[in-house]
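Our preliminary data section would be incomplete without showing what the modeling component actually yields. Below, a chain of 421 amino acids is followed by its predicted structure, encoded as tokens that our downstream tools consume directly.
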Amino acid sequence: MAPAPGKILVVDDNQLNRMVLCLQLQREGHRVELAEHGMQAMAMLRAQPFDIVLLDLLMPEMDGFQVLGTLQSDGELRRIPVIVISALDEMENVARCIEMGATDHLPRPFDPALLRARINASLAAKRLHDQEAEYLHQVARLTDAAADMEAGRFVPASLTSVAARDDALGQLARVFQQMACEIDARERKLKQESQFKSALIGKITHELRSPFVAVGFSAQLLQRYAEHHMLAEVLAEARQLDRQLAEGRQMIDSVINYASLVSKLAAPHAEPTDIAALIRESAAPLQRMAEVREVTLSYMIAERLPMMSVDRQQISEVIHHLVHNAIKFNHAGGHVRLSCQASAGYLTLIVEDDGPGMDSDKLETIWDAFAQASDDIQRGIGGLGLGLALVSCIVKAHRGTLLAHSTLGKGSAFGFRIAIG
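Predicted structure:
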């Protein structure tokens, strides 16, 4: 099978010879460029790529020997096959050219069959050499990628062209890319875990210490009141002590629940669930909290919601934390609205509040563990900022989408959307 046509440069000072070669080569489908002497040929070779050079020896300005010498001294141009054009009485010169790096020779007068054979053989050799050079280049890219990975600067996309090959080298590149992505994912996970641990330690140091410092102070007061038989004060301080201990227990439970949940969320235990009943059941314990804070809690639940295949306990946690946050960050006289509807194959649950709201740029991190929208809001309320992080983990484990919207000074809306099924 003949190679695909190539781009050929014919270098000959004889116009008739140039035209004869050009016509014969074009009949074979090749693209042909013409040069009258060596200087013109070298300029063209440096300006554009060629597959073969047909080179006459005896020319003005720069002869064929000089062209060959220049080509051989150039690291790129020396790869181009050169076929020397010669007369039968110039065989000594032909031998000299072969020694200088010429690939083959073509005797005059030109024989079409021999010309075709010489051109096809040189094209095949050139393309085989190009494939080998490209293969070695891509092998070098793999070794460079290994060094980049070790140095921590590897980019998987840098091996895209190598991975597109359908041979063993391509398979190796694809495996390498996959390994790199897995290593990168593990490193990101380790970094996130490290950040989580750092945040946890910082929060425990700052937040968990507060209620227990207060507990110690209350214990001292109890002792003094008891020593002076101040029964009313003892009872009041005992109630305060109980609240402080409950606050500390709640914080510890949040940390334990979050750590436990993160470790188990790969496979929620799904079961048929009446979502409307679960909503009221999960939010009911927060009614008292809403009353104490003078916040109105209302429901807008669509009739005949479908049964959902979800982890009942986890979704209950989600609803609880969304409503809890809405009440917690609201103001006296505020309103919390819990709405739920099914549409287009999805269940959407939204909890809206009339609280202070937040800037839109803070919504990007609101779902992160230990995120706090505002220190001023948090102060005096307490908490480790794990509520929405728990929500995020659970919704993602159910392959759902988190929803968040907030307007500074007007309130916020948080929720989720999960597929019905």
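The longest helix spans residues 168-227. The radius of gyration is 40 Å. Preliminary results of this kind motivate Aim 1 of the renewal.
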